[in-house]
Amino acid sequence: MSQSSGGFFAMLLDLLASIFGGKKPSAAAPGPQVPPDSSDEPAQITTVKALLLVYDPAVDPSGRKLSQAMNWHRVEDLATGFCADINEASAGLARYEIVQRVDLDEFPVKTDGFAYTADSYLEMMRGNASPHQPDTVDYQPILARFDVLQRVANGEIDEVWAFAFPYAGFYESTMGGKGAFWCNAPALRDTTSCPRRFVVMGFSYERGVGEMLEAFSHRAESIMVKTFEKLQGEANLWARFTRYDKTDPGQAEIGTVHFAPNSERDYDWGNPRSVLSFCDDWFNFPDFQGVVKQVSAGEWGGGDIRAHHKWWLNHFPRVAGRKNGIANNWWQYLMDPNRV
């Protein structure tokens, strides 16, 4: 706007002020601004406060817990290993703090009101009965019981971890809050009163840390798809990150959670086939050098689920700067979906 037009606008405001009794009408508030690209924006540490809910009911008169009766993992060991792996893969930029643990001597209720008893659950696990359908847990009473929406809004917690057992009905991850989007499952209904997005993770103490990393990695895939959804072609660095040889021969990069650079099918992390990959060039991000090498399963643990997922997550960019409005530290999005 020229100086003369700016002066005219000021005079118009004065005229309107005289009409409205000396009050100048306020200018319209600016809309959301995309942070400008920069090379010096620091890679911020993101600490996430988690509420830990453990569904581990007693299954006999002695009070023995389901996890003990089935000889499954201890939740504290799983949580400790998972937090350590996330911290290591992010080079310290992603940190979890468990602010509260609640142990629940009960089976969670399904969407149709059904809940297993100790006897009916053990009969099902022995193969004497079919798993109940629908399987999905009813999230609404859980969110209400533990005041999740208000606690997230107040910043007391940032996400929820639900540890349970096979057929408990929890999604690996799902998102709630205002603006919630697909996070490897549909967004939680009736949560828009919460002004902040939050994730509910579903973990199983029957499985290991590797499966926890898989649940987190599927969450990561959903969040990064959303982060880059407005960018096309080579500007969509997430699409580039997930290339593997089967879909892009000779142009493999890091691959996806289920497909390593050389995979030929889902979960094919132990494939000995050697292919070209630009995986190491992601350690030069955002200044790619065209580094390429031959890789096979030995690169990411020879088929071990935990080793592969740590290798995959370790390649997520975590450096200073911003390009196309997106931070070069992708971990801040994985940990806090409010930044998407």
Explain this structure.
- The chain folds into 2 domains: 46-209, no CATH class; 233-321, no CATH class.
- By secondary structure, the chain is an alpha/beta fold.
- The chain is built from 10 helices and 9 strands.
| Strand proportion | 15-25%
> Which strand order do you get reading across the main beta sheet?
2-1-3-5-4
| CA-atom Rg in angstroms | 25 Å
Into how many domains do the coordinates divide?
Answer: 2
Quick check: average pLDDT? Answer: 91
Low-confidence runs of at least 5 consecutive residues = 1-32
Give me the strand/helix succession: HEHHEHHHEEEHHEEHEEH
Quick one: biggest sheet? 5 strands, mixed
Number of helices: 10
Question: Which percent bin holds the helix content?
Answer: 25-40%
Structural class comes to alpha/beta
Write the layout of secondary structure elements.
Layout: H1 3-19, E1 46-55, H2 66-69, H3 75-89, E2 94-104, H4 118-125, H5 139-145, H6 148-153, E3 159-164, E4 173-176, E5 198-204, H7 209-227, H8 237-241, E6 275-277, E7 293-295, H9 305-314, E8 318-323, E9 326-329, H10 331-335
Parallel strand pairs: 1-2, 1-3, 3-5
Antiparallel strand pairs: 4-5, 6-7, 8-9
